[in-house]
Amino acid sequence: xxxxxxxxxxxxxxxxxxxxxxxxxxxxxxxxxxxxxxxxxxxxxxxxxxxxxxxxxxxxxxxxxxxxxxxxxxxxxxxxxxxxxxxxxxxxxxxxxxxxxxxxxxxxxxxxxxxxxxxxxxxxxxxxxxxxxxxxxxxxxxxxxxxxxxxxxxxxxxxxxxxxxxxxxxxxxxxxxxxxxxxxxxxxxxxxxxxxxxxxxxxxxxxxxxxxxxxxxxxxxxxxxxxxxxxxxxxxxxxxxxxxxxxxxxxxxxxxxxxxxxxxxxxxxxxxxxxxxxxxxxxxxxxxxxxxxxxxxxxxxxxxxxxxxxxxxxxxxxxxxxxxxxxxxxxxxxxxxxxxxxxxxxxxxxxxxxxxxxxxxxxxxxxxxxxxxxxxxxxxxxxxxxxxxxxxxxxxxxxxxxxxxxxxxxxxxxxxxxxxxxxxxxxxxxxxxxxxxxxxxxxxxxxxxxxxxxxxxxxxxxxxxxxxxxxxxxxxxxxxxxxxxxxxxxxxxxxxxxxxxxxxxxxxxxxxxxxxxxxxxxxxxxxxxxxxxxxxxxxxxxxxxxxxxxxxxxxxxxxxxxxxxxxxxxxxxxxxxxxxxxxxxxxxxxxxxxxxxxxxxxxxxxxxxxxxxxxxxxxxxxxxxxxxxxxxxxxxxxxxxxxxxxxxxxxxxxxxxxxxxxxxxx
Length: 666
Prior knowledge:
Low-confidence stretches: 175-182, 662-666
């Protein structure tokens, strides 16, 4: 190798140790607290700076908790990190992505996301989807000599590429970085808290300055004016709110990490809590992804004894690595002897694969309706019988014409039906029942036959599984907003239709969560409000998702949903508690600017009140188990709870000060 430049490591979710320490220390509110303490010391009231102990404790706890969360999440990220296979010194070696160097020979297969720029040196039907980079939805065939950009993903075939640019050295990598930027998170919680901080940043200093001037003009003395103004401004600062929000999100991510769920986007913990529709791909969620061949049924007079050999030859020529291929190789272990002249590898767009074997003709494997659009009625009836029983039916087809493109030869005829059985997860029924109880609607979006998926979903206990539709019969320009509401199971869905179904749900006002593990799920995972991938799935799916289930166990979604709801419900309660203090302090500051009286509090008096009535209770509230479904808008909810309480506090203070006439107290 003429260079040993390494590929840059992927950006981690967590901040560095120095960023955590500095970020917790140098906050706007901490700086404001220190400035107020300086003024208090300057007028000789050291005892009133005791509030700094609370500030220090909050800062230390924040640093410790975030460092703990960082350690847990980073350790899990290392486990989840994608590894790649390279050829070095003639041997296949598995390495981390950041260990790739220039001139490495990188192996590629369907489902891989390309992490560096390179040139194809060997191709067996390689096809790449570059939509994340170029916006073009068509897959592109990659022959030897073709360039491949980082950020694209392999949809079919396998091969090898030479690494030409790593890290940020290549222009294609820069384009990929731009194209793969995190989607904008619709975090109502974070947006609301940021708005509160912006408002308080504008309000606190001017109100404090005006109050100090008004108090000083009342001839109460410099010392009393400083203490009163400091107490008012300290009351307006919701420092614990930001602290506890960060803690709650960090602890939420840490709790999920302990349950083998990697959080790749903190705001999506909240988004998932608000999800009211959960879209599933059948494989890896309802079923465990494994298949077995149940039967082989010759049709159209094809000799049954020849089918096993033809299937074995196809599996040898295609070398696909997916559950269907594995099941076929296990069921038909015949030794291959036919030389392959051309191969078309499986892709979710075509729904079939095939190969030509010289004089022996061409054989194809795939969905019946894609290999033979006009099925014989009696054959269609046989296929429908098996699909309604919950079996997956694929066809072996034969054509005398050799294949030269990725289109089905005109003389193709079906030879045999291959009946495969999915294995339903044991916990699928219980998981569906939980989501139904929580008001979350389940939609199954699959590339398989709609009737088959419907039957499997019904066996797994999914309500309304009988409402299914074959999306291959739906025109591209069709408005899906009505279809997505009327049906529960969607079969023969293309990757682009999956994205359109997600968009239709969002257009209807739903918060949609998508789970999947295949390359055909990538576009939908990117489009969904919240994407969840299985660790055993394609690299591209894991890259596009906000959560990765490292044990590839769909039942873990129950704990993920619970944790999301706990986070948002607890932050809502904590925010309400802190805003009571902020609102009544702001109102009192304004009132005592005009009233001819001294501000009724000093920092020394407010510190124990804030600690015992707000600080400690909010810390407990932030960590409570609270799994109810969030309702309403976050801002409206916290103001609905905090504003009336703040008004009551203000009235009680004014009453205790004797400022309200007796006739108004009745």
